[in-house]
Specification:
With about 150 residues, this protein is α+β, with helices and mostly antiparallel strands. Helices cover about 35% and strands about 15% of the residues. Bound molecules: FE2/S2 (inorganic) cluster. This is (2Fe-2S)-binding protein.
């Protein structure tokens, strides 16, 4: 039988049996029914799959089950209900930073994390968001949202 992995998912302790090399992105979407994290490149380059691992952004396509033991995972399903994401979601919506929406969950995970960092400015936030690609190439609206969030 596969080993059991226990971790905290969106504030709830969870445990499941699966192979050690099952990817978190797959587990979220196929086992837990959480489809907010999106498969894009699946090699850690596009940011569509970003979640928080112990409060910091991480590519769920690169995280394997064995790495989750005892850790804390937050997905867009929980973060989008939390007050800290409200200004980020509003800025993206008001600035035209959402087109097809495929990258938006990852963008919100990344931007909300940066928005909580003391002393962050627009130039640094923009540079640090380089791991989030928009397949619509809608970077103008996303950049305007960054300038609203980091005045
Ligand atoms: Fe994980 Fe692209 S799907 S970074």
């Amino acid at each position: 039988q596969d080993p059991a992995w226990s971790f905290v998912l969106n504030g709830q302790p969870v445990s499941l049996h699966c192979a050690a090399d099952q990817r978190l992105l797959t587990l979220l979407r196929e086992h837990f029914g959480l489809a907010g994290a999106k498969p894009g490149c699946e090699v850690g380059r596009c940011g569509a799959c970003v979640v928080w691992l112990d409060g910091q952004p991480a590519n769920s396509c690169l995280l394997m089950a064995w790495q989750l033991q005892g850790r804390r995972i937050t997905t867009i399903e929980a973060l989008s209900q939390a007050p800290e994401s409200v200004p980020v979601i509003a800025a993206l919506a008001q600035c035209g930073g959402v087109q097809c929406g495929y990258c938006s969950p990852g963008m919100v995970m990344g931007l909300t994390y940066l928005h909580q960092q003391p002393g962050m400015d627009a130039a640094n936030a923009s540079a640090l968001m380089c791991g989030h690609l928009c397949r619509c190439t809608g970077y103008g609206g996303i950049q305007r949202a960054i300038e609203v969030l980091f005045p």
